[in-house]
Amino acid sequence: MSDRPRGTRHIEHVMGTVFSFDLRDPLTPAIGRALAEAVRWLHRVDEVFSTYRPASAISRLARGETTVGECPAEVGEVLDLCARAERRTDGWFSPTAAGRLDPSGLVKGWAVERAARMLRAAGARNSCVNGGGDLQLSGEAAPGVPWRIGIADPRRPGRLLTTVTGRDLAVATSGSAERGHHITDPHTGRPARALLSVTVVGPSLTWADVHATAAFAKGGPIAGDDCQSLCVSPDGEVRVTSGWARCTA
Questions:
Q1: Is residue 77 predicted with pLDDT exceeding 90?
Q2: How many other β-carbons are positioned within 10 Å of the β-carbon of residue 237?
Q3: Which of 84-123 are b and which e, b meaning 16 or more Cβ less than 10 Å from the residue's Cβ?
Q4: What is residue 54's three-state secondary structure?
């Protein structure tokens, strides 16, 4: 008999994408309540930060109809994080890269990371929270077994480029395969086209997400925040940061 817990899986459609929860610990009442709280949290984030909802706080702020002080407290927190991200990436991450306020490049990772913390605080120490392919992973997949995350090859649909392995890590990917050239170079205002995809691995999904967006905009890795990157260019060149090998061991 396997000593791996049965666990719990839950799927939620929010923020225009699919979020999934894969909990590898037995479902206790506390974890069940935390899962429900995490789902409510993601829906709240969508209500506050969706740029597709004209009445969202971030849309109203972008139109100048309200102030940061009048918005929910999360807006000020996210904009402070965006300012830090812009400084840390030498301006390659920007919440106004396309000429309009849009912190989406940070919000999803930040929201997923907080949802994962809610679960962990309730006793779900081994879990994967996946927001549209960006993951915050806690603990292990099974006792003594690390998480293994396949990284898609943007040049060959349906095939894997490599596999990330580890415990207590975050994995974020930015690319043009699914959404086209939606990331803008903040220095030129034009769509970034130097790369097909960037995958970033680190301890925090907030910052892995930021670094993936910034690296894609720059056309190469962004150093810092304990993150490691893998970049794939249109001509097939694969570039990695010096510590990437540790992510696949």
A1: yes
A2: 10
A3: ebbebbeebbbbebbeebbbbbbbbbbbbbbbbebbbebe
A4: coil
Task: Give the integer Cα–Cα distance in Å for 63 and 200.
Answer: 33
Backbone region of residue 197 per phi and psi (left: phi > 0; alpha: psi in -120 to 50; beta: other values)? beta
| Amino acid at position 85, single letter | A
In sequence order, what are the residues at sequence separation of 6 or more whose Cβ sits closer than 8 angstroms to the Cβ of residue 97?
183, 184, 185, 186, 189, 217
Assign 23 to helix, strand or coil: strand
- Which tokens go with 213? 């967006």
Name residue 172's beta-bridge partners: 200
Answer for the pair 169, 147: CB distance below 8 angstroms, yes or no. yes
**Hey, is 17 helix, strand or coil?**
strand
Superfamily of domain 8-247: ApbE-like domains (3.10.520.10)
Give CA–CA dist 155/77, Å, rounded: 37
Q: DSSP assignment, residue 145?
A: B
Among 18-22, 98-102, 104-108, name the one with the lowest average pLDDT: 98-102
For residue 206, pLDDT beyond 50: yes
Residue 227 CA from chain centroid, whole number = 13
Nearest by Cα to 112 from 207, 192, 25:
207
> Is pTM, for the whole model, over 0.90?
yes
Burial group, residue 232, by CB count within 10 angstroms (0-12, 13-18, 19+): buried
Place of tokens 């939606």: 182
What's residue 7's pLDDT?
77
